[in-house]
Amino acid sequence: MTIDISKKVLIITLLIFTILTASFTFTHNMQLSNFLELEHVDTLENVERVQNAVATEQGYLDYIVQDWACWDDTYRFIDDKNQEYIDVDLANQTLAGINVNIMVFVNSSGEVVYVKSVYTHNATEAPVPGKLLEMIDDGSLLTEGEDDSKSGFVLLDEDPMFIACHPILTTNYEGPSKGTLIFGRYFDDDLLNSFKKATRSSLIMCRADEEMPEDFLARVDNISVNPDKIIVEPLNDSQIAGYFGLKDINNELSLIIRADFQRELYSHGEKTLNYMYFFLILTGLMTGIGVKFVLDKLFISRLIQIDDFVTRVRSEKDLSKRLTLEDNDELYRLSREINGMLNDIYVAEQELKAQAREKKVLLDSLNELAVFVDPELKIIWANKAALEYMKIDLKEAMGVCLTSAPGINGPLVECLQIGRIFSTGEKKSGEFVTEDGKVWFIQAIPVPDEKGKIIGILQTWWDITERKEAERLLHEKQVAEVANRTKSEFLANMSHELRTPLNSIIGFSDLLYERIYGDLNEKQVKAVGNISRSGKHLLSLINDILDLSKIEAGKLELNYKEFDLAGKLNTIKNLLSPIADKKHVEINIEIDDDLTTICADEARFVQVMYNLVDNAIKFSHENGLVKVKAEKKGNLVEITVKDNGIGIKPEDQCKLFRPFSQVDSFSSKKFQGTGLGLSLVKQIVVLHGGYVWFDSKVEEGSTFAFTIPIRRDSKKAGNNG
Known about the structure:
By secondary structure, this protein is an alpha+beta fold. The chain contains 19 helices and 22 strands. Among the domains are: about 70-190, PAS domain (Beta-Lactamase, 2-Layer Sandwich), CATH 3.30.450; about 320-360, no CATH class; about 365-465, Beta-Lactamase (2-Layer Sandwich); about 470-540, no CATH class; about 555-715, Histidine kinase-like ATPase, C-terminal domain (Heat Shock Protein 90), CATH 3.30.565.10.
């Protein structure tokens, strides 16, 4: 019965698929025909561009011959044949410049007055085609009357030629006609290539008086009837061609031109249609398969499911399985009765397995890896964590030797010497690092039977990698904190020890410099001055180190005081003016009108501003400008110090505000400094409850800025006195 239903479903599905395929095929062919029409129209437009290019060349020749023929100088030349006209107006370069190969002057009697033939590409003399002179003799190219003109092609032995003939008249287009002026331009490969380039097409030209390829012969009769008509036909699967003819001077077919184009429109359309066709066919096929699948799932598969279930339970003797069928029908009621019968059998069996299951659940709930091996080191049992670590199930693990078990390698067995436990009966433990870098704490516990004989070993693994890493990080943190405190204490102590002798050195050197103890010669004065300046620089460094150490130790207290902001900034300007004047640097100060006084540690504020302005002067170019600007930003005062100096490279900007760090080794040698100034600036501003930032571009300058509260109670500061 199952086979019969499946066959019926298959036949219906195939019938629907056949109907859909026929419909899709018909639509595909119709759309393909539309693309052929579009391709035909597009090719016609492209060939018309080629025709227009040829017509433009002929029109240019007609225009230029008319321009020369209706000229008083030409009109007189027919009679007097003056040499000046030839030398000035009929030079080789003149013909090459207007792209004319041949120029023939014929009088009204049909006699050739003057003829000139040149190669346009190099402006050299060229032979006059004999056939062209024959056509002049027989009158084919001569005009009749003042309103007559001729234009077209002439098939010469060399190459086809554009010909334009016009009666010779005065500049006012008045007669009587003095004869005929004939201009000719070879339709050679160079001209054909120019048409190819202008129209972006592949062109082939055949003469009507010579043997032509087969595809030209097949169409020559149709083109002869109407040369202007374009014939469009595909050449092959990838190219389509358009044919048209060109008339000679006697209005007869002289040339046939074929323009070739890629069939992109048709090929893209065909590909698109093919993709759609196959997509629809595939969709129909998948739909049919889906319908058959649904029918099989709803009916046939349910019967098969009942049969397979009963067979599996009987063969596997697994009474825990249950048959689950949906829908309240006969098949569902049958499955319910089968499940009821299995329930009765299953309850009895579960009572026997309860104790073993509880034990297994308990061991599987452990995060540790637990493996039980026999005296031959073969795995008898393993908990869930161990099985997941070995990436195998219990059936695969049972009987596997511990030394070859995945994830539990031989070096571990050798490390703990597990084999000796069976003879010694002693528990062993230790730490072990696996190849993946994890640290494990391992125990091997002997398991005896009722008589005390060791029947196996229970091995447990604890992953202590994270704990070890935490212990390492904690230890490193403690070591770093101790080292930092030791450094700060050392710097503070050394700074105090050095300041006392330095003050003495500076004091006595200043007394010597001022000649308190008597006169000194010039070299002695210079040496004493160097001692004083060096001592003051070293004292400044020690003071900065002491301040930085106090800040890091949290012992620097701020002495808040209200002071005049403008006066303080001008004081700093005055202090640094001698340094600025040496480099001809101008210091400009700009303060908001509503900013008068601020409350801060006056000495520390001066220290911050001195460092920032001093740095701006130090790194400015000669004749530079340092701008100091103070603005009110809510409850804060924002102060910026901007220079137009050397700037800071992007890779060096990360070094700013680090103690004992300058932007690069070159700056360290060229510009004197300790590298502590900006670090102290940042620390002092932060203590005031503010923040610091900067912006810099190489050779455009730098801007350093900071904000602090205008009033002490506008924002709580850190460790303030």
